[in-house]
Amino acid sequence: MKVRIINKSSNELPSYQTGASAGMDLRAQLEAPVRLGPLERAVIGTGLYMELPVGYEAQVRPRSGLAAKMGITVLNSPGTIDADYRGEIGVILVNVSNEPVTIAHGERIAQMVISRFEQAEWEAVEVLTDTERGSGGFGSTGVD
User: Fold this and answer.
1) How many helices (H) does the chain have, and how many strands (E)?
2) Which residue range or ranges hold the dUTPase-like domain (predicted)?
3) Which CATH code fits 4-9+23-116?
4) d(Cα 84, Cα 114) in Å, to the nearest integer?
5) Neighbour-count burial of 133, counting CB atoms closer than 10 A to its CB (0-12 exposed, 13-18 middle, 19+ buried)
6) What average pLDDT score do residues 53-72 get?
7) Taking the domains of the chain in order of start, what are their residue ranges?
8) Which tens digit of pLDDT belongs to each residue from 12-31?
9) Which residues are annotated as part of the binding site for substrate?
10) Which residues are annotated as a binding site?
11) What are the residues facing 96 on neighbouring strands?
């Protein structure tokens, strides 16, 4: 699939790091480093603008290395970029560690996965089909 993209950053375009990768790394486009104190959040720009085909979305997800090593994650994970959005791709980062963390220009801050989706059409009914689980909620299928 081809996706139209404008790169106003000084970083390379996102790319798949391996032949089996689902996500592409997004890099920070910053004029100056951004310091995130504990529990602070910021929208970090990427300098990227894209045009997805209708029926597709881009999901912005945390990078596991940043989360595990530094406590930096994507706040609204996964963030959704709709096919009709034409603004700059921004990433809402939050520092959930106990230490300040500095985000530098060009740093890989998130990953983006492009996925196909369908829009649902509601069908109002009075009764739903019964299942073995029924209305069992959180943890109702056990802990094994």
Assistant:
1) 1, 11
2) 12-142
3) 2.70.40.10
4) 14
5) exposed
6) 96
7) 4-9+23-116
8) 999 999 999 999 999 999 99
9) 63-65, 76, 80-82
10) 63-65, 76, 80-82
11) none
